[in-house]
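Deliverable D5.2: sample structural annotation.
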Amino acid sequence: MLEIKNLQKGYNNRTVIHGINICIDRGEIHGLVGSNGAGKTTLLKCAAGIYKPAQGTVQYDEKDIYDNPEMKAKVAYVSEQLDFINIYSVAGMAKYYQNFYDTFSGKKFDDLVKRFGINPKKNIGTLSKGQRSKLNFILAIAQQPEYLIMDEPESGMDSESKAIFRDILIEEVDREQIGVLLASHDLADVERMCDSVTMMETGEVFAQKSVDEFMESVQKWKGILPQKTTDDKLFAMTVHAASGIGDISEFYTVGEREESERILNKLGIGDYSGQQITLEEIYTLLKKIYLQGKGMVSGIQKEGGLKNE
């Protein structure tokens, strides 16, 4: 198990992340999402043992990773920075890695290069960004790690390559029981791949659940909002991000569906019906509510005079 407890890290007397707690079992893919500057890369580098935490711990199987070569050998880190030795060929880079990782599998490397359609004789300096991202991922998987830390691993990949990436990752996790912590801006892929998700902003976690729990905890509706309500406070607490054309509005609620429906009926919202929702919509809404709670975003005034979030 990967356990991150009360993690804090900063630079130049400025705290970047604080109070971070994440637990990931082997065989689990855990997504990490947040805006640029939210602290994701700092968190991942602490998780990979590159940065030393200012406070808190990062442990794999109850052992600290920082300054622990034994544990670092079990963890592969895929950086967003695609730095390679450009004079090497793709196959040459694999041989280079074999000098440092006893567990590196040349056969697995060859199989994955073929699956992604990369020419092993091609010089790395001539590879596109997407091809370099694929090579970065292949090298990490070929290390046969017990844990995999990845920062925007699909950067530059086309849709076909992303699908191959997803298939390989899920296969490897299922077969080898790898524990994965993955940061991505592609929430559609996070929804497809991940078992659980941590949502970050301003260096702290504002939501953390399994994907299924996220999908159950926020509802999307279409319905007719009343022009007036006798309970403005209840309305503002219940109806979020309402928008629409004409009489029909689209809006969200947070909490148990049955309780949300009870309140919608009490508020006199007419002809409402549930709509399909995505993890990206859930993230956008929960982040807005979180930032409003910190006084960083104001509410949205809906036409008709009803103020909601």
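Annotation notes: The two ends are 38 Å apart (CA to CA). The chain has a mean pLDDT of 91.
The annotation will be released with the project's public dataset once the embargo ends.
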